[in-house]
Fold these 4 entries.
Entry 1:
Amino acid sequence: MNNTAKAVFLTVIMVLSLPAMGAAGFAASDGVSSESESDDGPVLSELSEETGEIDEELLRDLGDGPTEAVVRLTEADNEALATGDREQVIGQLKTHASATQGSVIEQAEDLGAPVLNELWITNAILVEIESERQLEALADVVGVERIHPNYEYEIPDVDVEDADIAPDQDYTYGLEQINAPDVWDDFGTKGEGASVAVLDGGYDNDHQDLPEIHPDDQWQEWDGDGNPVESDPRSTSSVDHGVHVSGTIVGADDPDGDVPGFGVAPEATLYNGLVLPGGQGTFVQVAAGMEWSIDNWGVDIINMSLGGGPGDDALLPAAEHIWQAGSILVASNGNNQVGAPGTYWSSFGSQAVDENENPASFADEEFIDDPDSFFNTEVPDHWPDEYQTPHASAAGVGVLSAQDGDGYDTLSGTSMSA
């Protein structure tokens, strides 16, 4: 195993095996009144008293009729969270959201603006707006920092190629490249005890080389407002993107089909969230899936592939809170340009290489020498002053995995590397 592969593998093992860090409690930092109280409990940050910024795109959207708006409130102060203690961090985030969102909800109701959802993974409320007057009134509520559209995210484009498999090939080149078979033997595990949530475009629960997941426990779908939808596991994207990505994670090491083993952790427990139906979904849809992953099931790893812009900060608080709760957000880092959430320091961004370990033609990298400017927001204090993205690269060119309907295909894209 080369040094890079060793470092990546040992980093993941170390993170997953870390004991819960000592509860940090509600520690105050400069300018933070972390023990102040509201009717709903402690507030973990001083709330902004400045008028919230209104995204101009919302004003344009109002010209076509009522539109959905995401009201973002002051986030919990990172230093006040019990980093590493999943249960306590989630409880703190929920308490902070409950304590700070009441005034916005009350104002929205008074304005006749329906509240469609409330989030805690990031401190936000989804409302339906029909006038600029409503937007301005909500922006004036203490604690509101900005109001933006319910952004849409899409599965990145991938290339479909014919499989080129040697007849005596036991494993895909991607598994061999990271020495997965050797790791299985050396450590006596193929992922048993680890849990992964794939938030993507769906799943094939009948594929012979994928594990069957329980439709009530290990599967969930959400609508564009982030509300749960009752459904059974199914693939919805044109290239079965979610099926393929799931296969590279938990696909069989000894497949029934005439193909080599292709899953890096075939004994891991898989959860699958449909947040990008038909290949696209909303900000609130994705955030709801992130909440479900760490709150309902406390997964070790969340896998996401979606096309956020390089400096898109919309999901930054949610990604940061996943890290603080002790999970790892693994995100593809964009095709032809780097993209969020893979560009966040608190995520594990992945790029693609080919069979010869050369960067893919669509691979990109970025040296972020001023994170605050790059994301146009104040990033957490624990982030470095500068860093390189992606964090690592893996097989992403001509990667074989499962497809809906008992089939297989080779796809190319950074999604395959994550």
Entry 2:
Amino acid sequence: MTPTQTLLDQYTRWEAPGIERPTPLPDSLIHTEEFQKLFDEKRFSELVANVRNGQLTMDKCWIPGAELRAPEREDFSGITAAEFPELRDLGWEAVKKGLLGMIILAGGTSSRLKENKIFLEALPGKSLLYIKYMTTRGISERRGLAIPLCIMTSPFTTPLVLEDLGNHGIRAGKDYLLFEQPVAPRVTERGELVSYQGQIQFDVTGHGAIFSAIRQSGVLTKFAQWGVRILIQSNTDNPFVLLDANGENPLWAYIGHHLKKRSRITAQISRKEPTQRGGVPLWVRTSNGNERLAIVEESQIDPKFYKEIHYKLPYFNPLTLIYDVDALKSFDSSKLPWVIIRRIENASGSPFHYYRFETFSGSITLSEETTYLPDTIPGIFEDGMFAQLKNEEQLPTFRKTLQERLAAFIPPVI
């Protein structure tokens, strides 16, 4: 590849009449070897070819409704008040021994909001990202317990993450590790690259990229060298997965349960309201005719079937997953199913549709044995560990909840 060539020159481009939020990458990145680490050209070529020949369409990404079954609330057994003290103490001992690490997801572009929500001012002078950092590592560190932390960003968010946290004296490489998830161009329904004002438009390829990106970046190896055995994944918009230096923290019971049951993966699930979006645990029929519970994203479900069941689904997964480090080392991420997400762009008054390619972290549960735990413990912890922020209308309520919950948790620090 010469300085004037890129991996994208072989593809036909289509010039968009207008885009509300352009997402190009700088030429200075596209013409470097670093771009080759962020762009899987072989996989992208296969996906585009399948779009062109009709093998990859939205409906072919759906798991047929006949292979899915909605679970009942009784299908999930959570942590009980009787077993809570033992599990909490087991988890707390693991944390004190340095066996726990944390992954924050911060690579997405928040397509439902006008600006990236992780940089929204969730509290006066404090971004959602900063609050997430403080409730994940900052508070525990100030109280004498530094929990290893990594943040998965993307070329779209890396500069902003570095700036936002840097404004508070929080530095990559010192206070947290940073690695980037891959990107891919947007494509038309004919498989052409979407271009605007001569620049190709990109998107991240979903949070399923975490499995390959954390390995290829060397971050997983580094965590293992530090003695970390368990990693919690949590989204930036969920500041209620709280890690601190308090042995009474109910989250430690989930770590204890993961260890006691020797789980490879534990999925924390939250009560689902009808308006909530995201991955939901469903019974999925496997190739041998058996059923297993797995997290399935809405874009992987036949819309007719989803419409029938979504009002009665008891739980959904807010991207909080607990991984055994050995499971992450051995998992074959090529097993993750690719999905095309169809979006509409209407900035110019001439609307058009485009596709983005994604995989999902919850799809690991389609092939890996997983334990499912509700995020409430009856008689011990009733609030749950999630609050929704998917659009600007929810922001006032979200801020109020944030102030109330965090004031009781860390009043002098945030």
Entry 3:
Amino acid sequence: MLKSSQIVNLRANREKELFMNEQIKVLAYQPKYSERKGFELFSENQAKKVRAYHQTIPGYEPTPLINLENLSSKLGVKGIYVKDESFRFGLNAFKSLGSSYCMGELLTEKLDLNTAPDFSRLTTKEAREALGEMTFVTATDGNHGRGVAWSAKMLGHKSIVLMPKGTAAERLENIRKLGADAWITDVEYDATVQMAAKLAEERGGVLVQDTAWAGYESVPLKIMQGYLTLGLEIVEALKDTKPTHLFLQAGVGSMAAAVAAFFVNYYGKECPKIIIVEPNGADCLYKTAEAADGAIHAYDGELHSIMAGLCCGIPCTVAWDLLDQCADFFVSMPDWVAADGMRILGAPVLGDTRIISGESGASCFGLAADLLRKPELSVLKDKVGLGENSVILCLSTEGATDRENYRKIVWEGAFAS
């Protein structure tokens, strides 16, 4: 039998082996521009409808779009903008936009109101009596579950949240603080999703999952539409500035697809290049794009990445249908790229605003920054077309949701490149 110290050493060696073998891979994709099916569900008008609901929720404010003007000058591009979602509803991440809108729509339909969802109407005494106490169930790597728990609490209902093995204790406790019945399972994310679906059925709850599969598409679609508020806030803040490159991180791809579809609708022929970013250890969208055979492809192997929010092994079918029609590049990258992004955003060029960004949040910015500043990545930089006229847009989708790991990376230099 192996001693505990030997087991630790074996694990460390395995992690070192994975770290050394991983690399940035950029796949140029040929999107099916001629089809454009489903994009009408992510129009500017739909975005305004979604934002109108969010505006009825106490505490709604647009999150800041940060112009890293001095970094742009240093790295030789026209502009770098980062949307900072750490301020969203006090929850340190963007995910509440999807769950809150979806649940608002579901309750509005159940009450047969025949109106656009309105938070104040859904929380009246009459509404609660008509609805009874409902239970919303979900699986999550952290941020989505926190959004579901918060939305359920705000609306006066219960929530059950399942989390995959390896989840940080802080993320679990943040969800429990919102009144959810939450626990960590002994399986990975995709199996945890199926556990949540089964549990919702057994307990008569409502599954609010941000990934779709055959027969389960309506709820994920509503969640994806909830993310349209992000896109609308961004273009309003940009005003006349037009981005040339839109970097979007993806787990199952729901947020990435929703924002990408919105930008396609909003900018038309002037739409920026859409670059989908995943970790090497969970790159299911990259593998699906690489296969290019019309089928969904899962990540083969044990999921592994510091980017916990992106550690998903099977793409959302609804999301892939959209990305297949509009994404220009798919990128699979090592953890050190995200770690670089966290450190640069946390210690900005003099005069730029500091952004506290977590592992998943800093992924896209880390990629863009490394392509621009590392000569050994110049071939990849040229491949995606970054140059002096580029205006780069990234989303910092979360703040430091695992503060212990944040400090290890930013203070102690963990996952250095």
Entry 4:
Amino acid sequence: MIVTDKSSIITFAIPVFMLLILIEYCYGVYKGKSNYRLNDTFTSLSIGMISRYPTMLNLGLQSLIFVYISKYFNVGLLSVKNPFTWIIAFLLYDLSYYWMHRMHHEIKILWATHSVHHHGEEFNLSTALRQTSTGWLWKWVFYLPMVFLGVPGEVFVTVAGINLVYQFWVHTEHIGHLGFLEKIFITPMNHGIHHAKNKEYIDANYGGVFIIWDRMFGTYIARDPEIKPVYGTVSALKSWNPIWANLQIFTTMFKDSIKTKKLSDKVRVWFSKTYWRPEDCIEEKDPKEFYVKFDPVISSDIKVFSFLQLMFTGIVSTSVLFFLSQITYNEIFIYAIAITGLSSMTGLLLEGKRYMYSVILIASILGIVAIDFMGILNTAVMSANLLTSQLYVNILMVCLIYIYQSYQNISLAKN
């Protein structure tokens, strides 16, 4: 099956990614330059976990169209037996990625599916995992020429996986200039510019592996020693909810198309430049907010609970990837709902919305009933037992937090 991000290379790279994130965090703490925040990291990793499910569920027409074109319109120029096929495919994929990536920064309806990767206001290895859950809608269109040319399916999937895995390491501030390599490859220094929202840097350096495309097509911008990158999006997300992160721009476009009075603008808002909005929809922004990071003050219990949620959810989601052959399509859908729901509820909790404890408690009880008594998941598969364990731990922790809060309230009343 030909899918742009379904390579097993990605699955086996995930544990390595987690290890490198931990190493980067420890190194940053050791050097006194850590740029990790629990809320930002939680959201990045949650978005990454959720992004795998559309691929596992084969959402969209990508596979069907790729297979159809490969069967009936394949000109057969490239043979899987020819070693040069792999080199050509790798270069073609990165060139296709460049144009896909660039168009997703220049056309608003495409930006809506890509903006989730840029919401992070920190630039670290966890940011690399902020992958879209809506990219299956149309990003595959940019790779159609490769299928027409006859790039074999196994070659396509492999080079796609290598391309995506390569992009992981370039999301760090701990690696500086790399000399002549920066003239050829995407590196942490020039990719950091891509994630900056400064007007001097915005919309540049689109390559996945090679920076040469940007140099060829005029979109390369080098870092100015006098201008420090400010990360995030111009229209800040201001949320730790992974669902909202994937839907923010879609929602804005929909609201603008309803609100604006000019008929042509109702259509233009979907296909305009990413920064454009109808005149009667423009909102005033405080210039000072450009530099302010979204960081609500939360209590210690929320921090501990959210950290444990992140650990559990990560383990459950990774186990689903490794035991995928033992899990049915319907069960994948259930895991997708569970991981997305738990991540979103915890994200809202990280925004200081304590009522989410009650929602998580109820959801966990219902989840256990559904798994243990209604049999919606095959408990012979480790993933189901891990998810059940997480739900039991959720119930225990929320009850303990409520008991502790009640004790504190009683103590305060007595005093």
